[in-house]
Design brief:
The chain is of the alpha/beta class. It is built from 8 helices and 5 strands. It has a 5-stranded mixed sheet with strand order 3-2-1-4-5. A hairpin with an 8-residue loop joins strand 1 and strand 2.
Length: 234
């Protein structure tokens, strides 16, 4: 039975992945076909209106060493648990890489294009060349190895989950550091995502250089801030 996580008919050609195969079922199935090593790629910050888009790629080793204690989709882990898993992934991985795409590039290229470019860059930076690539949610064209886009991949593939943790922890650290530079917005709490507190800060202060001006809420706040400045100048 092919795992329902394979979307739009995407599946491992000629390979069966059982529903109960666990977090490493895709990797084991690919290894049985001689497709090893396997890289997973995922991002953090896609839904944020401030801060960078961070993309990570990870190659885990085969066997028990590649089974990271506590590994799961980064969104399902507490911040403390993510930090612990991050340390284990970095310690165990055959290779891992991170790409940070600043908000200005996201505005210029668009979110999806930036995401695809980030995954290509992260995969290209791996010290170990993968034989197969698993990505979370959508395919990445232009790779020189075969790959599969897995729906909710960070919940059904170990290497994608590992990439999600690397990306999330890296981005959270960046946003916490940005709080020191822009303390009015609470980046250390909401990490740039749209929350009532973040919206209140945007209304009060207008956007800063780390906001994504292609996002409608940021555009509106920028226009409102410009209007207030004009009134003050008059």
């Amino acid at each position: 039975m092919v795992d329902p996580a394979c979307r739009r008919g995407d599946r491992l050609p000629g390979t069966t992945v059982r529903r109960d195969a666990g977090l490493y079922g895709y990797e084991r199935a690919l290894a049985r076909r001689g497709l090893w090593p396997v890289a997973g790629a995922d991002e953090a910050g896609r839904g944020a209106c401030a801060g960078p888009l961070v993309v990570a790629a990870v190659v885990l080793p085969e066997g028990k060493r590649g089974q990271v204690p506590g590994l799961a989709d980064s969104k399902l882990l507490t911040p403390l648990a993510r930090e612990r898993v991050y340390t284990q992934v970095v310690r165990r991985a055959l290779a891992w890489s991170v790409v940070v795409i600043p908000p200005q590039e996201v505005d210029r290229r668009g979110l999806h294009v930036s995401n695809v470019i980030g995954m290509r860059r992260a995969l290209a930076r791996l010290d170990v060349k993968p034989s197969y690539v698993l990505t979370d949610g959508f395919p990445v064209p232009g790779l020189d190895v075969p790959g599969l886009a897995v729906w909710k991949g960070d919940r059904v593939s170990g290497c994608i989950a590992a990439a999600s943790v690397i990306a999330k922890v890296t981005r959270d650290r960046i946003m916490t550091a940005l709080h020191e530079q822009f303390p009015s917005y609470g980046f250390d709490e909401h990490k740039g995502y749209v929350t009532p507190e973040h919206q209140d800060a945007l209304r009060q202060h207008g956007p800063c250089a780390e906001h994504r001006f292609s996002y409608i809420n940021v555009r509106h706040s920028a226009a409102r801030a410009a209007s207030v400045r004009e009134m003050v100048d008059v």
